[in-house]
Amino acid sequence: MNSFLSERAKNTGRSAIREILKYTQEPEVISFAGGLPKPDTFPREGLAESAARQIRDNYQNSLQYGTTEGIEEFRQEMATWLSEFGLDLELDNIIATNSSQQAIDLVCKAFLDPGDLVFCGLPTYLGAVQAFSTFQAEKVGVPLEKDGMNMEILEKKIQESKSAGKKAKFIYVIPDFQNPAGVTLSKQKRRKIFDLAEEHDLLIIEDTPYFGVRFSGDFKKPIGTYDVSGRVITITSLSKILSSGMRLAVVAGPSELLANLVTMKQSTDLCTSTTTQLIAADWLKNNSLSEHLKELRKYYKENRDAMIEEMKRSFPEDERISWTEPNGGLFIWVTLPENVDAELVFEKGLERKVAFVPGHHFYVNDGGQNTMRLSYSLLTPERIREGINRLGEVLENVLSPVSQ
Ligand SMILES: Cc1ncc(COP(=O)(O)O)c(C=O)c1O
């Protein structure tokens, strides 16, 4: 039956993480593998009220089709929130999508031809890589440092692509508490990425779903705030702060670029769910998002702190082991000694009933064999400590024969 498949579909692999998650479903397994937000952090009572109100009293709109750009009240509420972060948006600078994953897909659909180049982090978000593959782009990985992509390498790769006569289209960047590495792009690098995009006439796709989940460190303005020439698209999602089940996101940027996404969206799904947009708009109007975020941040910070404290206590003392200390988001990234294969640690971990995602899955080249992604989002601090303790034992065992 493969003879029916499009080149596009042949080019797209299944998400390795979804496969890994199958192994981690048993209740005894302490899993740091999934990256799901904690449902208890969502404002369910308020959302239930908004849903009842919108479905009963505003059914002519909430149960009806809407425009492809999205419901004005929702976009307006989101524009008001984003203005707190320095993004100055008129209504035609913001559209609604069914999740940021859809926004990434639409960006690819609108701007990529087969063989076009996309620059992304090493490591980077797997869902974006899948979309790049579907649209048959060539993915060019740029190693991440503690403050985001290595700028010299990014510049060199852009120049090489030009010399090779390839068509480079965009830089994909997750500026805040990156998935999977937990690092935040520094202010200087945000500026530099924008300058490089200007110099080489590239778009920037800024994907920032963890934006609202900052619990320490200084706030850094989105790259979209530097945009003087209409080349930055900023995608942000409600999945981590209001509800991932509502599948709501917004895309902010120059109206000419957004118009292309709207055209692409028409053939995808006509419009974003009006029901969820109106529920979200109602909630945002009647509640304080910043108050809600205070609680949510407290929860994730406590979990991050528990994980880092326990790593310091139970991971083997070895200067070749390091980890990121994220200022927000859901993930910590661990680097093991170069000769340690994280797949082996994963196998041994499952025997000890602890799981994580081996980091090489997030690489668009063959790198990252000695890295691991740990999520602290779903467990209690006690379970996190227990799981890290188990992982520490596994690492002791794996490391000892290697280092002898
Ligand atoms: C960097 C990044 N982009 C996009 C997404 C998808 O989010 P959404 O639920 O809005 O599709 C995720 C989800 O984890 C993510 O980590």
Could you explain the architecture of this structure?
The protein is α/β, with parallel strands linked by helices. It has 2 domains: 2-42 and 291-403, Aspartate Aminotransferase, domain 1, CATH 3.90.1150; 58-287, 3-Layer(aba) Sandwich (Aspartate Aminotransferase, domain 2). The chain has helices spanning 7-10, 16-23, 44-57, 59-62, 72-83, 100-111, 126-134, 151-163, 187-200, 255-269, 274-286, 289-314, 342-351, 381-403, and strands spanning 30-31, 94-97, 117-122, 138-145, 148-149, 168-173, 203-207, 232-237, 249-252, 322-323, 331-335, 354-355, 357-358, 371-375. The chain has an 8-stranded mixed sheet, sandwiched between helices. Strands 10-11-14-13 form a 4-stranded antiparallel sheet, with helices on one face. The chain is globular and about 65 Å long. The model has no long low-confidence stretch (mean pLDDT 95).
Biggest sheet strand order reads 2-9-8-7-6-3-4-5
> So how many helices?
14
Structural class: alpha/beta
CATH topology heading of the largest domain: Aspartate Aminotransferase, domain 2
Give the C-level CATH assignment of the largest domain.
Alpha Beta
Shape: globular
Small-molecule components bound: pyridoxal-5'-phosphate
Beta-strand content estimate: 5-15%
Average residue-wise pLDDT: 95
Number of domains as seen in the coordinates: 2
Helix content: 40-55%
CATH homologous superfamily heading of the largest domain: Type I PLP-dependent aspartate aminotransferase-like (Major domain)
Distance between the termini: 51 Å
User: Could you give the order of the helices and strands?
Assistant: HHEHHHEHEHEEHEHEEEHHHEEHEEEH
> Which spans have pLDDT < 50 for at least 5 consecutive residues?
none
CATH second-level architecture of the largest domain: 3-Layer(aba) Sandwich
Count the E strands.
Answer: 14
The largest pleated sheet is described as:
8 strands, mixed
- Write down the Rg: 21 Å
